[in-house]
Amino acid sequence: MTELFPSVFAHLFDGLVRRFGGVEAAAALLEARLGAGSKGTVSKMCTGQAAVTLPAVLALEDALGSFPITGLLAERIGARARLSDDTVQAALARSTVESAEAHSAVIRAFRLLDRGPDLTADERAAAIAETVEAVEALEVLLRALREQK
Questions:
Q1: Which of 93, 111, 123, 149 is the most exposed place for a label (fewest CB within 10 A)?
Q2: Are 91 and 141 in contact, with CB atoms under 8 Å apart?
């Protein structure tokens, strides 16, 4: 598992860099936002030769309005919360992640709407599925809160 995340991060980071316009554009963004960013470092992060840094991820994700790496981290937290017992804290963690995923699905769908205000059937289905999971997680949180002594 520890080897999976660096390679996944590098792959996702490379996708962000390509979508942003390439290594030079990404390096310029990082220089402007963080005060440091070189083409060599960005290139090495894309290939996995250097660790992908959180500030670099956040800068590119924010600039693109797309959050694949942050989403992966949120899913990791959600998976850990689902493995824990049904305490208020675990229910809170899961409901937070599920709510964020529901919001993300809707935001993702609307961000892609250059064609008008209507969602496609697939976009609507994904948003509904994520929202149902969020509601279920909030119901678990509510039960845990009510049962807490």
A1: 149
A2: yes
pTM: 0.51
Give the pair of three-digit tokens for residue 112: 């892609």
Q: Are 146 and 107 in contact, with CB atoms under 8 Å apart?
A: no
DSSP state, 113?
Answer: -
pLDDT tens, 56-71?
999 998 888 888 888 8
Distance (Å, whole) CA 98 – CA 112: 21
- Cα–Cα distance measured from residue 10 to residue 30, given in angstroms and rounded to the nearest whole number: 16
Name the percent of the chain lying above pLDDT 90: 10
The pLDDT of residue 1 is 35
Between CA 19 and CA 135 the distance in angstroms is 33
Q: How far apart are CA 3 and CA 7, in angstroms?
A: 7
